[in-house]
Amino acid sequence: MKLTDVFKPLDSKKFDMFHIKALFTTGMGVFTDGYLLSSISLVILDVLSTFGITKSSSSYEFWLGMLDGSVFIGAALGAILFGYLSNKGRKTFYGVDVAIMTIGALMQAFVSTPAELAIVRFLVGIGTGADYVLSPLIMAEHSNAKDRGKLIAIGFGLMWSLGDITASLLYVGISPFISATMLWRIILAAGAIPAASVIYLRRKVPETSRFLLRIKGDVNKFNEVVREITKTNVAVKENLKDSASMRSYFAKAGRTFAVAAVLWFLFDLTGYANGLFGPTLIARSIGIYNPAIFSLMISAIFGFPGKFTGISFIDRIGRKPLQALGSLFEGVFLMVFGFLLPIGALPIVLLLIYGFHEFAGSVGPGIISTAGMLGVEVAPTKVRGLVQAMTVASGRTGAAIASFLFPVLFISVSKEVAMVFFGVLMLIAAALTWFGVPETKGKSLEEASKESELVEKIGEKS
């Protein structure tokens, strides 16, 4: 029996309330991640000021990078740990991730030193890294083939932006009424609310059919879950547990896995350099001194329209063209911004060019690679969790490097060098996408990952 036939009831299922509920349950973790990562960019100067660290302090650049970067170091570790654990059950540890995020977010309000805050944000990162592995994995394995791209793009691209804009709105709403010290504690701790809201729902998510059949080998439970989700009777009797080794999959498809990981590294290196320091360093360089206002303008005018544009086309024209073109134009606009910055261009011109970079990035990489789509689509079931962990850890490593590298380039070297450098990285990413990534739109996960082909090549009957 062919694998594609076994999963056909799920792949051909029409979009319904099951998908909407799964979208909310999985997407709220990424909403929290967007909130937690964006909120620190809004208040980091207030945080440093509270602890007596100013631009004239010798440790200024260090703590600027450490408070932004510790969460990504934790996320890389969390991704690797929970990527391994995902083969013990997709839902076994689902809910633990947002519980960690809830606890860590609350603890941020009670720190008394920058070192304590860095440690707590490391803990938050473990939760976000786990979520970036488990949530796209579960969403992809529950999705139908036709709408999988939109579901992942909305759940892990658009939801991140909603978290981002929520942080800015809260900042704008309460900042006039409280002290800076109280402001950053409230802003950071509020990230616990969305994370806590889905702990219970995540514990009730059904185990994925692909895990049950291909990894656990539980045919009866597989039939039960498929009937629950599709409302149709299925009676698979054949044992289709994957007996191939993980090493064999990496031997056959390791190059594609590596490309997916490198792409997320490049996109997070550039994306978080701009995301973390856009509201402060970049905004001030063009005359905008309110970080929340800058963040809202970029997100509402450029980011959201870009993501809605990408979502509307992702299952029609495909992942590869969107990401390649988005990366190309993101790189071009960053380089133009860098060239114009030192020659005194009008602030409105600089704002528009920077905004167009955000639009381009949102159309492509913002809803594909950085939404975790490639890792879950190009990897067969048995190694999907591990490959997703690799791509997440790679991306978070890029983000961690950006949190330390960007302030040094922007402050100590030159603004234009920093922007052109990251623009060039996006041009590289565009080429890598076009030549190194297979198209997966409209295909079942078994077709997209070539799992059916690979099991035949390594000697397993499908």
TrEMBL record:
Upper classification of the source organism reads:
Archaea, Thermoproteota, Thermoprotei, Sulfolobales, Sulfolobaceae
Compartment annotation: Membrane
Q: Which domain of life is it from?
A: Archaea
Q: Which GO terms describe its cellular component?
A: plasma membrane
Spell out the protein name for this chain.
MFS transporter
Give the transmembrane region(s). 20-42, 62-85, 92-111, 117-139, 151-171, 183-201, 249-267, 287-306, 327-353, 359-379, 391-411, 417-437
Coiled coil segments of this chain: none
Extract the InterPro entries matched here: MFS_dom, MFS_sugar_transport-like, MFS_trans_sf, Sugar_transporter_CS
Q: In what way does this protein cross or attach to the membrane?
A: Multi-pass membrane protein
Keyword Membrane recorded: yes
Alphabetized UniProt keyword annotations: Membrane, Transmembrane, Transmembrane helix
Q: Where is the Major facilitator superfamily (MFS) profile domain?
A: 22-441
Gene Ontology MF: a single term = carboxylic acid transmembrane transporter activity
